[in-house]
Amino acid sequence: MKQKIKVGFVCTHNSCRSQIAEALTRKLASSEIEPYSAGTHVAPRINPDAVRRMKALHGVDMTLTQSPKTTDDLPEIDVLVTMGCGVVCPWIPNRHLEDWGLEDPSGKGDAAMDETIRLIEAKVADLAKRIRSGIVPKQ
Fold it and tell me: What is the distance between the terminal CA atoms of the chain, rounded to a whole angstrom?
């Protein structure tokens, strides 16, 4: 069995963008990526608007398999993706680092949330493609 690349998605509260990225990666690229998400400061729950829109757009209920976690909860990862939070992340060992520069859609309505979900979906697909082609380092 092929070893999957462990990808950690990190944002400030691990309540919206990083949770969406974990869920979409699990749905769209689980054959090559083992996704995790975490935050530098943890929210008490996943953003309810993110949960609602992910159910509507992708049929995924993030509350069934995910919960907010801190960066201390991440296993050893290969790829670290920061979401563009404007905060300094703690040092997390990794083989490849990238920042997706996404604005937080929280509190900005369904259109903003849906756009962020679409952007993350495209970025997850691109990351999976780069991993398959060897552009992103494997273990």
Answer: 14
Tell me which of 20, 89, 102, 124 is the catalytic residue: 89
Considering 5, 10, 11, 54, which one is annotated as catalytic?
Answer: 11
| Cβ burial, residue 82 (10 Å; 0-12/13-18/19+) | buried
Q: Which position among 51, 62, 85, 117 bears the catalytic label?
A: 85
| Per-residue model confidence as pLDDT tens digits over 73-120 | 999 999 999 998 766 666 787 888 899 999 999 999 999 999 999 999
Rounded CA gap, 82 and 90, in Å? 11
Closest CA to 99 of 83, 123, 88, 77: 83
* pTM recorded for the entire structure: 0.93
Domains and CATH numbers, the chain: 8-133 (3.40.50.2300)
16 is catalytic: no
